Amino acid sequence: MNETEQILTHVLGCRRVDLYTERKALTSQQKERVDRITSYLKRGMPLQYALGEVDFCGLTLNIDSRALIPRPETELLVEEAMHILFSISSSGQTVLDLGTGSGNIAISLAKFFSRCRIIAVDASENALSLARENARFHAVTEQIEFVHADMARWLKTLPDKTCSMIISNPPYIPSGQLAALPADVQQEPGMALDGGQDGLDFYRAIIAQAGRVLTFQGHLLFEFWDGQDAAIEAMLRNDRNHTWNVRFLKDFSCVNRVLAAQLQTS
User: Fold this and answer.
1) Does residue 133 share a domain with residue 10?
2) Are residues 20 and 97 both part of a single domain?
3) Cα separations (Å) of 135 from 43, 99, 169, 230, 247?
4) Could you tell me the pTM of the whole model?
5) In the chain, which ranges are continuous DSSP H helix?
6) I need a labelling partner for 172 at 20 to 30 A (CA). Which of 57, 98, 190, 225 fits?
7) What is the span of the domain harbouring residue 33?
């Protein structure tokens, strides 16, 4: 859908096809809402923030400037996680969602895979407040434990063999490139974008603890930025204490976007 169609389907609460098969004049209240959203966009606000919601994995999530806007590419990450979870016969899996933001990953997994327990971590209390709102709306609060913490420090406190899966779409934009991002992206929280000098700080922190924290044959899943695949794979290959089976999944542009690694040593 184009921008106008997204605004109208949101305000009218209808499908795209209904815009053309059931032409109806906007009420004064609906027109006021359309005008208000349009004014936000003219001021550079991202469309999803202006609408106050985003579709992700078939779920409608509240979204605002407290958290990064979920992207379609991240659905590939969630789909791979669900494929793995459904292939594991045992119940009671524990999943760590590091950098949960709006809660989109954790809530999607909880909604579609009721047998898992999820620990969702974020350094931003504002983001966690939004994630909790979304979890309540989708009735999955009992499955998800939200933790306010710096993920790098928090991981070091976990006991060995804590979970069977770690999933993360961490901040991955190199600090020096933040200013060159599109204007609407720069409206999103900087801490959800800034991955350090080379964009890889959070991958290093997670990989440093992942082999210890995961159970035998546990899974590590990452989303990453264009061209970061080789560097992240090298981190896993250079792990002297653990052996990993690494594979990549491509996005809609046939570019490596998701890493799925399985721990091969106990």
Assistant:
1) no
2) no
3) 30, 15, 18, 35, 31
4) 0.94
5) 3-12, 18-21, 28-42, 47-51, 72-87, 104-112, 125-137, 151-157, 201-213, 229-237
6) 57
7) 3-43
